[in-house]
Design goal:
Largest sheet: 5 strands, mixed
Shape: globular
Order of helices and strands: EEEHHEHEEHEEHEEHEHEHEHEEH
Oligomer: single chain
Number of strands: 15
CATH class of the largest domain: Alpha Beta
Helix content: 40-55%
Structural class: alpha/beta
Number of domains: 4
Strand content: 25-35%
CATH topology of the largest domain: Heat Shock Protein 90
Number of helices: 10
């Protein structure tokens, strides 16, 4: 008792236009060892928090506009080509040429489909069919395909594969990540160069590395590599690495890029070891939120704070991952929270902390749940989750 306390109070008032957001601080006044009273300091931060909220919305709108605009530009090219070919087919009655035009149209439409599929993977959890994968055997099966792509350019694929635990992953999506990273590495290497694939254990994770003997990554692109539609290639879409990141994050892992001290670039994928060998992987936060606009920024903010994070769609999606993850904290949306979910969560993960986004529920069964108001203040989200984890 009698210790300094501070916090925030949100949405004070009887009408939306009168809402206030304040920071408060309570300091004890003492006479000797006795508590004589308190000094309460209240700072009206309404304008500051409204500005932050407006800035976040503006940033979101700007990002959305940029992504949609770039996607529209990328889609326009193949659609324009297909339209032109259809017009030519209507003017000419040469079956042989029309057959060739039809093949070109199908190719351009396949490109449109590919772009849309990759775009839809960004910022959301893709449907997965996870299975226990022996990563060493998985890489050895793919090696002939990778060597075939490299040998045509006079390059060499070298491997250094240490024994590692199995991982729980979707094999098709893991293949997509590896092929993308290796193809990028091959394109970065000059003739008679090499691409090295490494596999090793790193704590409770499996580390997969792809390194090349190229010139390395320029400093000015390091912060942009995983940004959607950023590319240094003339014909690239800029979605490859962004999709890789989305897939790896969806598997509860991490992906990083750096320049190797001995030259060239190295991409590292960390995946949690499978539950079949080490039990459910311990993570800090499992975000069980359907709203992609809420979930994706929350993931980024928490990962930037150094927390181990995975995501799922709603309480049901979270419970389906019980064999893969053992979270210290579960983040939900209040509208998706009900008594049955709270009971099921408590049975599956005894002692797990629950943070709900929204206003407190009225029923008593969620008395142990903590709440954070929406729209999210991501600084506050990180601070509140870190405080809850300390008490875990």
């Amino acid at each position: 008792m009698g210790r300094r306390a501070s916090g925030r109070a949100d949405l004070i008032g009887v009408a939306v236009r009168h809402e206030k957001r304040i920071d408060w601080q309570a300091n004890p006044l003492r006479e000797g060892n006795d508590l004589a009273g308190w000094v309460l300091i209240i700072d009206d931060r309404t304008d500051y928090y409204r500005w932050q909220e407006a800035a976040r919305k503006a940033e979101l709108l700007a990002t959305t506009a940029t992504m949609v605009g770039t996607l529209a530009h990328e889609l326009r090219n193949p659609l324009t080509a297909a339209k032109g070919l259809l017009q030519l087919m209507g003017r000419r009655h040469d079956p042989e040429k029309n057959r060739g035009y039809a093949n070109l149209i199908l190719r351009e439409l396949d490109r449109v489909t590919s772009l849309l599929n990759e775009f839809l993977l960004l910022g959301r959890a893709a449907e997965m069919e996870p299975e226990a994968i022996d990563v060493t055997a998985f890489l050895q099966e793919l090696l002939p395909l990778l060597e075939g792509e490299a040998s045509g350019l006079g390059l060499e694929i070298v491997t250094s594969l240490e024994p590692v635990p199995q991982v729980s992953a979707d094999q098709g999506q893991l293949t997509q990540v590896l092929l993308n990273l290796v193809r990028n590495a091959i394109q970065a290497v000059e003739q008679e160069g090499w691409v090295a694939i490494g596999l090793s254990s790193s704590g409770d994770s499996v580390a997969l590395t792809v390194r090349d003997s190229g010139r390395g990554l320029p400093p000015e692109v390091m912060d942009k590599l995983f940004r959607p539609f950023f590319t240094t290639k003339r014909s690239g879409t800029g979605l490859g690495l962004a999709v890789c990141q989305a897939i790896v994050y969806n598997h509860g892992g991490q992906i990083t890029a750096a320049n190797h001290p001995e030259g060239g670039a190295v991409f590292t994928v960390l995946l949690p070891a499978s539950a079949t060998t080490s039990g459910a992987g311990k993570i800090d936060v499992l975000i069980a939120v359907d709203d992609q606009i809420l979930r994706y920024p929350a993931e980024q903010a928490l990962r930037a704070a150094g927390l181990k994070v995975a995501s799922a769609g709603g309480p049901g999606g979270a419970l389906s991952l019980a064999g893969r993850y053992k979270p210290a904290l579960l983040m939900l949306e209040q509208p998706a929270l009900n008594r049955q979910d709270v009971e099921n969560i408590g049975r599956v993960w005894p002692g797990v902390k629950i943070l709900a986004v929204g206003e407190p529920a009225s029923y008593e069964d969620t008395a142990g749940v903590q709440y954070i108001p929406s729209p999210l203040d991501y600084d506050r989200l990180v601070n509140q989750i870190q405080s809850m984890l300390i008490a875990y």
